[in-house]
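seq:
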Amino acid sequence: METKRSSFAQGVRDGVPIALGYFAVSFALGIAARRAGLSAAQALTASLTNNASAGEYAAFALIAAGAGYLEVALMTLIANARYLLMSCALSQKLPPDTPLGHRMLVAYDVTDEIFGISAARPGRLDPWYTYGAMAVAVPGWGLGTFLGVVMGSALPARVVSALSVGLYGMFLAIIIPPARRSRVIAGLVAVSFAASFAADRWQALRSVPAGVKTIVLTAAISLAAAVFFPVKEAEGDAR
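struct:
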């Protein structure tokens, strides 16, 4: 039977590759944070409290566009909504007598990768395994964002511009894999691009803040996809 220490150590070992990947991605986020006007400390705080690439990128983009607090909060909530479902699923894997405090701490960092390795553990999930993965993944994410801002401030403008290409690579890495697996998702991505371009160019919407347009388009397209292209239960179980 595994002890808390051995479970934590295994989580650390499994979390190291995740931390390295997080560092690379969050460095690009740090560049975006700097371009949005955030300091290194502010970007670090954002990453330590919101460990999510899509959610943070959306937030930094809205901040750069001059969006208000409510717009940023709503967009972050929408972008990170899937983690609510992941948390509910992971809570069923914990022992029934797991205290609320442990459940809340595990829920703090239910990212795609940490959810994946935690859900793949045989039998019941020992929270200390997830804590071990979090112990290296969270600092990796925060440090990468911090250094992205610091290096972005120290490096020449041309180098920063070149590093900013990593943001587009991160974005493509998010949308291409699911789009290749599903024609529906590929179509929705194309529709999203077209709708965003049209909303930006449409003269009647020029007075509407960019953040509001992004939130409305995200909610509308997501709702339409759920209504017209619902995911069958068998398909969801197969993933």
